[in-house]
Amino acid sequence: MASTPERPQWSNMLPDLLGQVIARLPHIADRAHFHAVCRSWHSAVRLHVSPRHRLPWVVLEDGAYLTPSDGSVHRLPFPKNTTCVGSTNDWIALDSTDEVTQTHTYTLHNHFSGATVRLPELDAIIGKVPEDFEVRKVLMRSTPDDFIAITGNIWKNEAIFPMFQTTNKGNVLVRLGGLILCRPGKGTWVPRLLAMPYFRIIDLVFLGDKLYAITKAEDLFVLHLAEDGDGRPTITSVKRIIRHAPGHNDDVYDVGVWMRFTDIDEDTDEELGDEAPSEENNQDVLNHGGTHEELVVDNDGNDDDDYERFAFVEEETLSECEDGIREGYDAIHTSRNLVESQGKLLMVRRVHQISAFTPTDHTRKVEVFEADMKTGAWVPMNSGLGSGQAIFISNRFSNIISACGEVEEDVVYFPDSNDVFDMKSRIIRPTTPMDWLSDKGRAWVFPPNLVV
Length: 452
Fold this sequence. Notes:
The chain is mostly beta strands. Helix content is 9%, strand content 35%. The chain contains five helices and 31 strands. It has helices spanning 15-23, 28-35, 39-48, 120-126, 304-308, and strands at 57-59, 64-67, 72-75, 82-88, 91-97, 104-109, 116-118, 135-140, 148-152, 155-156, 174-175, 180-183, 187-191, 203-207, 210-214, 220-227, 233-242, 284-285, 292-293, 310-311, 322-327, 330-341, 344-354, 362-372, 377-380, 389-392, 399-402, 411-413, 419-422, 427-430, 443-445. The protein has a five-stranded antiparallel beta sheet with strand order 8-9-12-13-19, with no helix packed on it. Strands 14-15-16-17-18 form a five-stranded antiparallel beta sheet, with no helix packed on it. A five-stranded antiparallel beta sheet has the order 21-22-23-24-25, with no helix packed on it. The protein is globular and about 70 Å long. It starts with 14 loop residues before the first helix and ends in a 7-residue tail after the last strand.
């Protein structure tokens, strides 16, 4: 009886042959899948792939992504009517719209591992929204089953608050909370309308069991996170760590509704306190009773009333996360982003010029500050990070990683201009040109370290 021929053992392929296969896999995601097959293939990737540390990807809303290392444009296989609305490390957040019902569903997706996590709890809150609705940020604390923070441009109309009537088609310019906390499989948490400081948040970052948030006025708040008995996320208390200077145009919006609000908002039921910050007691504790509630969703399908209560504001090119002025036809935007570095909290303030008629968008000024929690002040960092790291800033996601290879030490990178900022020399210098700089939804995505 003839013996059955032995099946080839893919793990026994010669290293040189594996090297030829790897050479035909220029795509980082393909190499990630290759290295995960077995130990010998894993070792082959280490042997044949250059160890240099490449720059992260820049993913656009429509699934196109840029590789700043060479300025190339590629495309992720997004489902139809799907956009990227956020990122955290190697995960991206996707918003898919049904063509018939116009209902939104939200997922987390890891292109490198192929993992996808649905977010039905988020669907229940912002699944049925008008066309102008935008998710601003989707930030994961760690893994997809942990806390997720979401910000968007949700507003309420004058039917709820007639005292705030405006001439803008009857829409009152008041945001619903400004923050959603979600934990997949457990539930969600949203603040009450007008609750401070949620409706003024422009950026946030997780740090342990706390969520830090900043306003346009550069007030810094710490939100203490917890879970209820069922594992649903909640916020137990809020403290103001840094207070803006007296007389600041506190959180000015283009629409002009919140001009020059004081530290005590008479239209809210939260007391912020007016004591000046000091080294002994610089933290303002917000009275948190009655300022937040779990969102209860009607599952009977009768959600038309909720749909009618949403209203939105057209902001052209200016994000809620930025201040802006005009210089002729050009726009000058000032953004503020938070990022964590070895347990310290940093703020990057950037002035960015957006040209109206020529492709000459560029960074005009960058300042980096460290939050001094004891004195309640932003302290300028004029001599670099001092820890062999680099900063990547965007409204979708900001991160700090170790400098190596193409990633330069003490350099601040931006996804929407062909320049970088050197913290030590204080010089803004050009980089490899990237296309599609006008796309406002750019998100940094950091491929697994082994294959970048």
